[in-house]
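Handoff note, outgoing to incoming analyst
You'll be picking up this chain. Sequence as last confirmed:
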Amino acid sequence: MAVSISVVVLLLILATILLRCGSLKLSHATICVLLGFCLAGTSMAPTIHNGLSATTEIMSSLNP
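Most recent structure output, in case you need it:
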């Protein structure tokens, strides 16, 4: 659960930066959010979750 919250916060910060820089329009951000909610209700949700979990495990195991 902590990984999910941190990913959401990271994506929120990134979207805010892109909105302020003018690279991302509000309509595009809204469409991305709606797509995320739609994907969460599909049968692909566990696959996406497992992929994100595997990616975070790989990233956390890297030593700088």
